[in-house]
Amino acid sequence: VHPNLREFETLLLLAIGEIGPEAYGLAIHERLEALTGRSIALGQIYTGLARLEQRGLVTGTEGETTVGRGGRARKFYRLRPAAVAVLRASADAYARLAQQIAAALPGLERSR
Amino acid sequence: MSEPPRLAEWLLARLRRLPDTRYLAGDLAEGFVKRAATNPRAARRWYWSQVMRSLWHRAPAGHDTTAAGPPPRVAVLFREILSARRFLTRRPGPSLLTVATIAIGITATSTLASITYAVLYRPLPWPHADRLVSVWETRDGGTGPARAGLMSGTFNAWRDQASTVDKLAPYIGKEPRTVQGPDGAELVDTAEASPDLFAILGAVPVAGRTLAATDTNAAVVSEPFARRQFGEGGHWLGRMLNLDSRSYIVVGVLPASFAFPSPDTAVWVPLASSRLTDVSLLSAVARLAPGATPAQAAAEGEARARQAPPVADGIQKLFFRAAGPPRVHAATLRDVATRDVRPTLVAALAGVLLLLATAVVSLAGLQLARASERRRELAIRAAMGAGRARVATLLMAEALWLGLAGGLVALAPTWWLLRLAPRWLPSDVPRVGGLSFDVASFLIVAATATVIGVLVGVLPSWHAVRLNLSAVIADESRAPMGFRTGPAGGRSRRLLLVAETGIAVVLLVAAGLSGRTLVNLAREDLGYTPGHLAVARLIGVGANRSARIAPQDLKALMERLDHLPGVTGVALSTALPFQSNAGGMRIDFRIPAPDGSGQQVPAPANENSVTPSYFDLVGLRLITGRVFTDNDYGRQGLFVVNQTFARRYLGDRPLGPFDKGEIIGVVADTRDPGDGTPVEPQIYSLFDPAYGAPLQRPAALYVRSSGNATAVLPMVRAAVHGVDDRLGLAELTTISAQLSDMIARPRLYAVVAGVSAGFALLVAAIGLFSVLWHAVTNRTREIGVRTALGATPRAIGRHVLAEGLGAAAIGAAAGVGTSALLVRYLATLLYHVASHDRLVFAAAPAALLIVATAACLIPARRAARVDPVDALRAP
What we know:
The complex is a heterodimer. By secondary structure, chain A is α+β, with helices and mostly antiparallel strands.
């Protein structure tokens, strides 16, 4: 798996978790753009969500039809228990990575 | 502006690879509205960029896309079209009939259209061919020159001051000359050409150059001729070529595509300078100046012709059959080549298209009848959300399937017919040599199939759109009760039936007349028996063209041929067959006057010198007296005459000697097939091989074989070559092949008329059947009521039958009337058949009525079997 994709999926999980029960496409999109600070295509969000659904990390349920969406419903995503475990593992990995970087930095700064 | 951009929305709906597009679209709409409140332009930009950037993402494999909403319309349509095929194969009978009819129609149309294109419209092989014109002159009152051309005076006057034409080139084409070929003497088609001819036609030699003004004994040859004459390898330039008695040096080779003036022209030699200085008639071709029309060129030519030095009336009459002020004509080469066949081809194509149109109408009626059988099914489909448009689409799809299937079936016969066309078309139809099934033909077939499919589908589809759903589902049979108020204007369809049957009768009459003509031609008593007879012209390369073939050569040849296996007889004659009656030279024969005064009176006749074996070989019937025998050699003045000679000049006088000779026998008249002109007096004199063959008169060699005449031709050729390699055979053929070629045109007419008539009958039958079937289906309830009120099944059936046959009878009467008016245009094509032949005029409507009865019987029987209880109770 491409590391970027894994990162993107982790971010998706994080966004859904942070938003809570009201997590749907557009909300996740806005959250992610805020988190990463760059513009993201909605298509990418939905393909990522579809992948997470397939892996059993999130579940999607169709909501009520809302005004202002051209008669189309929202699809709400919730984290499944497995997602929490994945997020925990990610957190550990990032922490280890952060530690390694911190350890390596003094030497790198000296060599300049 | 709170609506998202329409195009982007539409594009998004096509993104089948994205997961959950429905929610995605909703999110985009929501985001758009939110942004549009502050900045509509930025909102649109955002929407577009989101859609465009989403293009590249695709759902992971195995993702369930059911949540993606309904599939797009195109996919539905495709599925619908596929399912349409199912109905067609469920009831194969009518489908097969329709496909067969369409296939016949497409085959006829595309074959004829391909031929028409190839003959009339395919570009000529020369550059700027649309600016190439043939120019010729005539005199008022003349019936046309023997060979179209310009007088040398006109040419000289015009060439020096021409403004409408860039260049004007004289030539003399179709000059057969003998040449010593690898297989003995051959006749080749040559032309005398001025250097400008090659420039005008843009000739690009394969090797060497074209003719120059200073050439006198240079020759340019065609590539196929060079290969045959000098062999492969390309060492062709500088070779010697003896044409008749003159020697030429080959200076250039032209590709086979440079087929001017005729496709067979093999050698071009310089135009003799005397042709332009003497008074003579020259063929001429010109290239129009840019912007000039043929009419302008003709006007200019006419003005120049009047400035030309005057020509004696006698010479004018010789060339033009009239004397007087000259008229000059110009027409493009293509028009000149195709003017004889254009009207025929265009008329035939128009006829086929008319026939195809009636077929389409009939088939549309059949499809409508089938659809009306299923009206409940279709109405329920429509009501259950399929929509009328979808039902109409379904019906259109069915028709398209039928059209395409017909096109597919038609491919093979069209390919085959086009391949054979150069053989079955009369040999005088130009430009059919390269005819084959090409891309253009394929496109014609495909286009015709599609158009037919659409046209056949329009009628049922249109009815589906207008279908009254609730009426059909609630009570289909309460709708039309009147007799002629079917849903599709009964009157116009009745009129169509009359037209279809009428056309069928007209074509049946044409087929009958041309068929009888063909039978008359085939059965005609020619006065001889043509089977197993090969014939060729004996030619020789000698010091000059009038040289005789040496007597010893001729005798050796006769003996050699006599001993060939399979050859049962050999004869020589100075006349080739089929040159108006028995042919030969016109001579002023003189015989004693019948009154016994001893005076000589003229008895003009054609003379043909023959060897004794000729009569037996050709199968000429002896009427009285005897024919020549070998013992007659050496005796002067023996003659055999034909019946016409005997009747006209001898009356009832006995045969016998007169002062110049002796008439020893009378043989039957001979005639060419289809030649309606009266037989001319003919005398046969004795051809004595001991004197050799005079080559200025054709010496024809007749060889009878025990088996297939074509099979002995190579042996005959080899034997001739073996006697002397300066001898050769030209125009080698069999009498049967020549006869077959002579009746090629009538045979083609008969076949075309017959096939068209059969097709028209089929179309009329389909038309009758479907209209009646449709009517019976729509009136089941009415029929039930009638039966309940006491009508017998017989009466019901008779009623339906009468309705169909009524239309057919009116059509037949109209067809007979129309034929009676049209047959005079056929009169010139008929042979020994009156154009109002009673048998044909009675048989054509009879055949139609028999077929019509058969077509009407099925719906009539169905009507008779309607169960009144079922019909009335039906929902």
